[in-house]
């Protein structure tokens, strides 16, 4: 019972910022439409929807638990990225990695208490993300180019 209520609160917290973008964009677009500028309203709504999408957990690869990420990383040597929705630096890392982001193991610290604890342990009690763990060593907010270098080279397409 208790763990399901924590999961519900965590899920709500994950979607607060995207929901606010959608609601604010809708309200502004409605007001502009009523003022007689539907074209501008539509453009503004699209901007707010794009912001909502960028701040949602949807643009990130599927998150797994910290314990599972550490297990997989030990097997395949890929880095583990601890992140949270709405984090500008996490979004920057995700966007700059492009398709290669799927090669990492992603842990959403708002959904995984063990992940949040691992980040706090690595960052003097702070939940500073992104924290990238490579070969067991944490790196707080590393340069995306450095993270890309930690990945194995892409396999040639056949």
**The CATH superfamily title of the largest domain:** Glutaredoxin
Instruction: Compute the CA-based radius of gyration.
Output: 18 Å
The level 1 CATH classification of the largest domain is Alpha Beta
Low-confidence regions:
none
State the total count of DSSP E strands.
Answer: 4
Shape: elongated
Structural class estimated from helices and strands: alpha+beta
Biggest sheet overview: 4 strands, mixed
Our count of domains comes out at 2
Share of β-strand residues: 5-15%
Please tell me the CATH architecture of the largest domain by its name.
Answer: 3-Layer(aba) Sandwich
What does this structure look like?
It is a single chain. With 158 residues, this protein is of the alpha+beta class. The protein folds into two domains: 2-58; 61-150, Glutaredoxin. 56% of the residues lie in helices and 10% in strands. It has a four-stranded mixed β-sheet. The longest helix is centred in the first third of the chain and has 33 residues, at 2-34. The mean pLDDT is 85.
Descriptive key words:
158 residues, alpha+beta, Glutaredoxin, 4 strands, 56% helix
Question: What's the layout of helices and strands?
Answer:
Layout: H1 2-34, H2 38-54, H3 66-76, E1 80-83, H4 88-97, E2 105-108, H5 113-122, E3 131-134, E4 137-140, H6 144-150
Parallel strand pairs: 1-2
Antiparallel strand pairs: 1-3, 3-4
Helix pairs in contact: 1-2, 4-6
């Amino acid at each position: 019972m208790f763990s399901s209520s924590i999961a519900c609160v965590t899920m709500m917290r994950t979607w607060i910022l995207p929901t606010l973008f959608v609601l604010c964009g809708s309200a502004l677009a409605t007001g502009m439409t009523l003022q007689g500028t539907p074209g501008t309203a539509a453009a503004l709504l699209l901007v707010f929807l794009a912001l909502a999408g960028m701040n949602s957990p949807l643009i990130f690869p599927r998150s797994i638990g910290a314990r599972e990420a550490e297990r997989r990383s030990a097997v395949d040597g890929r880095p583990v990225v601890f992140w949270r929705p709405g984090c500008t630096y996490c979004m920057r890392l995700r966007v700059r990695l492009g398709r290669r982001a799927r090669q990492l193991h992603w842990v959403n610290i708002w959904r995984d208490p063990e992940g949040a604890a691992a980040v706090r342990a690595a960052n003097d009690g702070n939940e500073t993300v992104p924290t990238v763990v490579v070969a067991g060593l944490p790196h707080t907010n590393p340069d995306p180019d450095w993270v890309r270098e930690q990945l194995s080279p892409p396999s040639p397409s056949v």
